[in-house]
Amino acid sequence: KDSEVKNICCIGAGYVGGPTMAVIADNCPSLKVNVVDINEERIKKWNEKDFDRLPIYEPGLAEIIKRCRNKNLFFSIDIKKHIESADMIFLSVNTPIKKSGLGKGQASDLKYIESSTREIAKYAKGETIIVEKSTLPVRTAETIKSILESNDKSFNNQKFSVLSNPEFLAEGTAINDLENPDRVLIGGENPEAITALEEIYVNWVDKNKILKTNLWSSELSKLVANAFLAQRISSINSISAICETTGADINEVSRAIGMDTRIGEKFLNAGPGYGGSCFKKDILNLVYLSKYYGLNEVASYWQKVVDLNVWQQHRIRKIIVKKLFNNLTSKKIGIMGFSFKANTNDTRESPAIQICKDLIEEGADLRIYDPKVNKFQIEKDLEQNQFNDNGEGSWTLCKSIKDIAIDADAIVIATEWEEFKSLDWSDISRLMRSPKWLFDTRGITNSKDIKQHNINYWKIGLGDSS
Ligand code: NAD
Ligand code: UGA
């Protein structure tokens, strides 16, 4: 091998590994990119002939896969082979919250990082740059280095450098975020390794958007960015409750404060609480880190961001129960949207899960419609089979909005899919049972549009009197 990077291997073919490597392959035709995973099923889906059946839905992703797959982008389960040939290896494995042991419920579970690092130690040949793409606790690079260095490296002439290169993409806009990042962060110690990674990004990213820091700043910045974003949502959600009781309108308040350029207008949409695989986990990680270093006030400050989010999700149930005469038994409730946000099939930590579980617990019969989420996923998330009506609440997945509206006592908008923004509410109203209710937890509908069709209306952050 010479020092130029020609072969890339990415361990982990998930929401980050798949789209990130697709964009790298698309922008760097001379690189060969191999994405590997232990999940055979997932790799099979990445190699599907039918591009509608890729394991991940992201606008624009299928087109890139069509252009690059089997040209310079490959999906495989042959981890050994692709580690052996790689000059640069991205770690994009999952880093969930620990379910047991020390740090249970807060600390990151690094078992996947450790197992993939051990694979690298076993198979890598010559000089290899290891890039942390997964979101990791501060100083994980140290752990990675110790595992790599504990190996007898003489056999394969191994030499490793470790870089931190956190990913800031958001699901639903992953391709656009990867194509036009606000910044690319590279943390590391070895200047040649840093340059090698920079050389890849400059193929499509402006050089002045590439920030170089030390390893620990880079790892910490990722956790802090997510904590700040989530904090904005908890802040605006806390105000949504004040709006509902005072007659103020959260959309007007968001607009008014967002026009202050110091505050900014983005990420000020009140909703049913943030979901997604990362905000909760990354803040809890920061809480754990703070406690570990004896910074208890810092820990409780960030813990509150999570607590408020849990409160907001359960608050929706209370409102629905109260408006529907304190009784949901055998009432039909349509649920619009199940993914944690629009334009993704991902349901991890989706607020819709908690809302549905709460309503089922109250005895409601739910009719769920989501343009991208399938039955098996919902079954897994709700921990209950479809049609399992034991008289204590049930759920069914429907194919259309019309199907969820038939005889429904209420409809709950749980995800802000574009198609829910321009519905014909007169048609929907005709199918529902009176008294009819719409609960808009995403604030995407207009009260006048709904009320004129004889539907009672509740919207997040909107007082009854406004
Ligand atoms: P994911 O669960 O979708 O994908 C991770 C993949 O890694 C899985 O397919 C799993 O089978 C595979 N894997 C685990 N151990 C392996 C091993 N030893 N060898 C080979 N494959 C292995 O997770 P994700 O959403 O892509 O997130 C990955 C990381 O990126 C996390 O640390 C997350 O915090 C971070 N992140 C995620 C997002 C996002 O939007 N999802 C954005 C930025 C950062
Ligand atoms: C988030 C960050 O935005 C990414 O920068 C980061 O890379 C990623 O986490 C990660 O580390 O995983 P993501 O979770 O995909 O991305 O999606 P967001 O757009 O941030 O939305 C998260 C949740 O907040 C969703 O449930 C969304 O509906 C909610 N949200 C977002 C609001 O309730 N209000 C808002 O104003 C914005």
Automatic annotation (TrEMBL):
GO terms for molecular function: NAD binding; UDP-glucose 6-dehydrogenase activity. The active site is at residue 278. Gene3D superfamilies: Cytochrome c1, transmembrane anchor, C-terminal, NAD(P)-binding Rossmann-like Domain. Its EC number is 1.1.1.22. InterPro entries: 6-PGluconate_DH-like_C_sf, NAD(P)-bd_dom_sf, UDP-Glc/GDP-Man, UDP-Glc/GDP-Man_DH_C, UDP-Glc/GDP-Man_DH_C_sf, UDP-Glc/GDP-Man_DH_dimer, UDP-Glc/GDP-Man_DH_N, UDPglc_DH_euk. Pathway: Nucleotide-sugar biosynthesis; UDP-alpha-D-glucuronate biosynthesis; UDP-alpha-D-glucuronate from UDP-alpha-D-glucose: step 1/1. One of its GO terms (biological process) is UDP-glucuronate biosynthetic process. This is UDP-glucose 6-dehydrogenase. PANTHER family: UDP-GLUCOSE 6-DEHYDROGENASE, UDP-GLUCOSE DEHYDROGENASE/UDP-MANNAC DEHYDROGENASE. It comes from the Bacteria. It is an enzyme of class 1 (oxidoreductase). Transmembrane segments: none annotated. Belongs to the UDP-glucose/GDP-mannose dehydrogenase family. Keywords: NAD, Oxidoreductase. Residues 334-447 form the UDP-glucose/GDP-mannose dehydrogenase C-terminal domain. Catalyzes the conversion of UDP-glucose into UDP-glucuronate, one of the precursors of teichuronic acid. NAD(+) binds at residues 12-17, 37, 42, 134-135, 171, 278-281, 348. It catalyses: UDP-alpha-D-glucose + 2 NAD(+) + H2O = UDP-alpha-D-glucuronate + 2 NADH + 3 H(+).
